[in-house]
Amino acid sequence: MLFSENLEKLIQSFNRFPGIGRKTAQRLAWYLVAQDKNFALNLAETIKTTVESFKTCSQCNMLSESDPCPFCISPDRSDSYLCVVENSSDIQILEGMNEFKGRYFVLGHLLSPLDGYGPEQINTAMLLERIENLHPSEVILALKPSAEGEATIHYLWELLKDKGISITRLSTGIPFGGDLEYSNLNTLANAWKRRYTVQ
Amino acid sequence: MLFSENLEKLIQSFNRFPGIGRKTAQRLAWYLVAQDKNFALNLAETIKTTVESFKTCSQCNMLSESDPCPFCISPDRSDSYLCVVENSSDIQILEGMNEFKGRYFVLGHLLSPLDGYGPEQINTAMLLERIENLHPSEVILALKPSAEGEATIHYLWELLKDKGISITRLSTGIPFGGDLEYSNLNTLANAWKRRYTVQ
Ligand SMILES: [Zn+2]
Ligand SMILES: [Zn+2]
């Protein structure tokens, strides 16, 4: 028995979010229906206002309510360090460290030629222009160590290696709190290869 | 640096959903901002339409777009079996079994006197009226085996035990695919006590 076409539509919308399976989507949809209506109506309004106010920063390609974005115009951040990320949301995660005070660049996608994401789709030209303007001494490729991430890191390294800039990437290995037993073999083999002296 | 007040509001709204932590809320909010705007605007519209169309069924207390709900008016379902659940969403989960063809009743909350949920708040009078009208031969208390669930099961059993109705509850024990090692002691002790002959 179909509960309600509207509810089913709502469940399917939540199901489209990354990492939200059918069961969680059901839970979210029913929560909205069961809560006081104002919460749900406010959420609907917030979604509308937010997505309508966001655009892409013409300098760093980040999603932001202003162009240039706060990170590109801030006088408190250094042009010497440029951190390249896959998505705008990665910036919020990295900012959580409260460690990095340089500039950002958002690729928008990792290199994945079979899915139609070649060098143009990951905004290579815009990145080169950004580097041209900022003259950073270090470009940090803060991309995830997946097959696509590795391909992108390699591609960008080839592109940038002769420009006299230090090209770095995040350390890979066993995560803190991670268990050897539950690490996959790639992670383990990589951590073994990258082992370092205890001091 | 605050990214955007709107985005922060959106993150905090998602964070209010059960089981959605701050990190997942961030992921959901950014996904909405990064997708094509139509998806987000449609979601906002679906939320509005859905919550505005849902009300409570006056017979079973379920959230539904019609009163009586489809389960209460369906001629294909038997009055002989009444399944009591905590929330409307439990009905969708149980319907997934495609096994039960009786009626439902939604308590809305488990008994939890310290949080202000006494017999009146869990709609005891409405349940008694429902039983009066349906004359079921079996009432299935499909409540979770938590402290509050057990208290509610016990309370409802006391209330109904002298009415000549069979009062049942769902089996408790080790879940399929569950590991002895990862079962908590209550689950294990209960499964031990309820062990049954293999045949
Ligand atoms: Zn920017
Ligand atoms: Zn009903």
From TrEMBL, chains A, B:
This is Recombination protein RecR. Pfam families: RecR_C, RecR_HhH, RecR_ZnF, Toprim_4. Keywords: DNA damage, DNA recombination, DNA repair, Metal-binding, Zinc, Zinc-finger. May play a role in DNA repair. It seems to be involved in an RecBC-independent recombinational process of DNA repair. It may act with RecF and RecO. It comes from the Bacteria. NCBIfam families: recR. One of its GO terms (biological process) is DNA repair. SMART domains: TOPRIM. CDD domains: TOPRIM_recR. Belongs to the RecR family. A zinc finger (C4-type) spans 57-72. One of its GO terms (molecular function) is zinc ion binding. InterPro entries: DNA_Rcmb_RecR, Rcmb_RecR, Rcmb_RecR_Znf, TOPRIM_dom, TOPRIM_RecR. SUPFAM superfamilies: Recombination protein RecR. Residues 80-175 form the Toprim domain.
